[in-house]
Design a protein that fits this description.
CATH superfamily of the largest domain: Cyclin-like
CATH topology of the largest domain: Cyclin A, domain 1
Radius of gyration: 35 Å
Shape: elongated
Helix content: 55-70%
Length: 294
């Protein structure tokens, strides 16, 4: 059974021979060819074909594995050696801001990276954009979120990033025309986004939506502020314990802004002689608008 040992390699030759012999015996007992019942072997290892040692029948073919490098897409937010130093700085800033805002890589960060690469001449040559990369990226992300129906107020983004809200807002207006990101949200959209986080009473929300529909042609301004003021007006009418500061916190604005917009709505309704009234007939709260008699 053993081979004659040479000076140095004989021992290892004997060990290899014994190992192969044991493997052959185990293979003959456990795995057999379905045609001739011969032993099955894998000449090229576990990743190769399994064939019959006696008749040569191929039992299983080689299974090619799909590695990550074969299907992984090219992320636009990742820079490579061909990108300029300026583009690397912009993409690095984008990745940092995205992480601070807890944004997923796709589609928001990748869409922002695509626009930065596409509009690189505007971003790179603009002196105000170059000096304030974080503010510029924050404004761009705000517009992209809005286009994907992800309501996130500009003040919330600026507070998270510790940026100047007025400067980011100015950049957002500039890039809105430059990138054709024109989608806007109505006060009802902001009410549904932020109102349900604070109010659990569907009657209050329904009444606020009716109020916003009634005043949408009479009052203009920031839709977030108008929505918060209308909600506070309904809460006061129903004698709810929700304060203006709580509404302001939910809408990411100050309580003073909530109060001032509620006063605007109250003055408009009093000027028109209209009033929102609650009725609890049949234990169901309804809101009616009383119009002045003519």
């Amino acid at each position: 059974m053993f081979l004659p040992a040479s000076r140095y390699g004989g021992l290892y030759d004997n060990m290899a021979f014994m190992l192969n012999h044991v493997r052959g015996e185990i293979g003959e007992k456990t795995l057999e060819c379905p045609e001739c019942h011969g032993p099955l072997v894998s000449p090229d290892g576990s990743d190769g074909e399994t064939v019959c040692k006696r008749c040569g029948l191929v039992i299983s073919l080689v299974q090619t594995s799909c590695g990550f490098t074969e299907w992984a897409p090219k992320w636009l937010s990742n820079w490579d050696q061909n990108d300029s130093d300026t583009l690397r700085e912009w993409l690095t800033t984008l990745r940092t801001v995205s992480c601070q805002l807890n944004l997923p890589d796709f589609p928001f960060r990748e869409e922002a990276a695509r626009l930065i690469r596409q509009k690189n001449e505007v971003f790179f040559r603009s002196q105000r954009f170059g000096k304030n990369k974080r503010e510029t990226v924050a404004a761009l992300i705000f517009l992209i979120l809005r286009c994907h129906n992800k309501i996130r107020s500009l003040k919330e983004i600026c507070r998270k990033l510790s940026l100047n809200h007025h400067l980011v807002k100015k950049y957002a207006w500039t890039m809105q025309e430059m990138t054709d990101l024109h989608k806007t949200f109505s006060p009802k959209d902001y009410l549904r986004q932020y109102g349900w986080e604070l109010v659990s009473d569907p009657e209050i929300m329904e009444a606020t939506e009716k109020l916003l529909m009634y005043i949408h042609e009479e009052i203009s301004g920031n839709p977030v502020s108008i929505a918060s003021g209308a909600l506070y007006h309904i809460c006061r009418g129903k004698k709810s314990e929700i304060s203006k500061d709580e509404i302001g916190k939910a809408f990411h604005i100050s309580g003073r802004t909530v109060y001032s917009n509620e006063r605007r709505i109250s003055r408009m309704l009093s000027t028109k002689g209209s009033k929102f009234q609650f009725s609890t007939a049949n234990k169901v709260a309804k809101v009616t608008i009383s119009q002045p008699e003519r």
